[in-house]
Design goal:
The chain is about 45% helix and about 15% strand. By secondary structure, it is an alpha/beta fold. A hairpin with an 8-residue loop joins strand 1 and strand 2. About 45% of the residues are buried.
Length: about 250
């Protein structure tokens, strides 16, 4: 098996990709790149078994209805979201609220925060993948899964915050994450890529995304509640691991 992790930014210059090849009792990072274009992502998707992408795959159902109501000047569609509580329904998806409750982390909002531009790019990438390889369900049940590296790091006992950026403290935090990875996943050899991973939080997130894609492939991530499966198919679903890193290397039925 090969898993692809993508840390998607609005600008390809800040977009990173990592491919991990899973062997018998071991795993190796066989591809790591920064400055990744849409075409490269689609090509890597074709060459791997499952892709974990760090970007929302959709928008809140209520937000799309709100925009449609605004487009046709339907007061009822807009007024039902009057006030802070009403607007909150426009900001967070079911999966965002689920991750908040399970991890204590607060994902950025795809409809009201800095994720808007990457999400637009992600929607186009999904269309390009669909053209060549067929439409992928946004709940991760096909070959494309939404991931949240900070949540994965927290589940795996590593610091989920303050590792992004070029400050000395943030660089030190990435060193700490890599040291912990080496301790808890000795079967994953990152030594030859260590300097690049310390230098770039984007590439580090891509590696974590690829590891999380492996968890999703093994059905070792938290699924949506039965009553929210419809929203997960429309809005996307963040795959958060349920077990330790060791579980990723154990032979399991797919």
């Amino acid at each position: 098996m090969r898993t692809l992790g993508v840390d998607l930014a609005a600008d390809p210059k800040r977009t990173a990709a990592a491919v991990i090849e899973w062997l018998d009792g071991a795993a190796r990072l066989v591809h790591l790149s920064l400055g990744v274009t849409d075409g490269e992502i689609v090509d890597l998707f074709a060459e791997t078994d499952l892709t974990g992408i760090d970007c929302p795959l959709g928008w809140p159902r209520a937000f799309l209805t709100f925009l449609q109501g605004h487009a046709v000047a339907d007061p009822a569609a807009l007024l039902r979201h009057d006030g802070l509580a009403g607007r909150r329904e426009l900001v967070y998806r079911v999966t965002d609220l689920f991750v908040m409750a399970r991890t204590g982390l607060i994902p950025l909002s795809v409809s009201a925060d800095r994720l808007a531009h990457p999400a637009m790019r992600c929607a186009v990438i999904q269309a390009k993948i669909a053209q060549r390889w067929g439409a992928q369900s946004r709940d991760g049940s096909d070959r494309l899964a939404e991931v949240y590296p900070a949540a994965s790091l927290k589940v795996w006992g590593m610091p989920p915050r303050r590792y992004k950026g070029a400050a000395a403290s943030e660089t030190a935090q990435r060193v700490s994450i890599l040291r912990k990875l080496a301790e808890t996943a000795p079967w994953l050899n990152l030594l030859e890529h260590q300097d690049r991973l310390i230098a770039s939080d984007d590439m580090l997130d891509a590696v974590v995304a690829s590891l999380t894609a492996r968890a999703a492939a093994l059905h070792a991530t938290l699924p949506p509640d039965p009553e929210h499966r419809g929203e997960a198919r429309e809005e996307g679903w963040m795959h958060v691991p349920t077990g330790s890193l060791t579980e990723l290397i154990k032979p399991q039925p797919l």
